[in-house]
Amino acid sequence: MSITDPIADMLTVIRNAQRANKEKVDVPSSKIKESIVKIIKDSGYIVNYRRIEDGKQGVLRVYLRYSRSKDPMISGLKRVSTPGRRVYVDKEKIPYVYGGTGMAVLSTSKGILCDKDARLQKLGGEVLCYIW
């Protein structure tokens, strides 16, 4: 089975694991997925992640975070730019997700950045996903 959008697949696996109250989830690894997961970790939405070598492309093990009342920290993940419809924004039009309580992940000329870092560096780019 070929996957046409591996980023959307990763977001769906994380979303489904959170709904099932899983402690961790494994997704196939790539540099862009690892960058996105690093941003999610730095923003406090997940506990940690780890790259596991398996002799092929590797696996990202993502440890999910829950509140004290066992509610998931990630209430929503949305893929914005898809292989069939790329969404680009200028530095002045970087979206605020849920009034700034969520975040957008962008692919810029300086790498994968969250919306706050892209605004500070005055960079626009492709909007990969929203997290809230």
Verbal overview:
The protein has 132 residues and is an alpha+beta fold. 24% of the residues lie in helices and 30% in strands. The strands form 2 sheets. Strands 4, 5, 6, 7 and 8 form a 5-stranded antiparallel beta sheet that branches. It has a 3-stranded antiparallel beta sheet with strand order 1-3-2, covered by helices on one side. The radius of gyration is 15 Å and the shape is globular. The termini are far apart.
Secondary-structure blueprint:
Blueprint: H1 6-19, E1 24-28, H2 31-42, E2 46-52, E3 59-64, E4 77-79, E5 88-89, E6 103-108, E7 111-114, H3 115-120, E8 125-131
Antiparallel strand pairs: 1-3, 2-3, 4-8, 5-8, 6-7, 6-8
Summarize the structure.
The protein is of the alpha+beta class and 132 residues long. It is built from three helices and eight strands. The protein has helices at residues 6-19, 31-42, 115-120, and strands spanning 24-28, 46-52, 59-64, 77-79, 88-89, 103-108, 111-114, 125-131.
Gross morphology: globular
Helix content: 10-25%
Q: How big a fraction of the residues is strand? A: 25-35%
Q: Could you report the average pLDDT, rounded to the nearest whole number?
A: 95
Whole-angstrom Rg: 15 Å
Unreliable residue stretches:
none
The secondary-structure class comes to alpha+beta
Largest sheet properties: 5 strands, antiparallel
How many helix segments?
3
Counting copies of identical and different chains, the oligomeric state is single chain
Number of strands: 8
Q: Whole-Å distance between the termini? A: 30 Å
Order of helices and strands: HEHEEEEEEHE
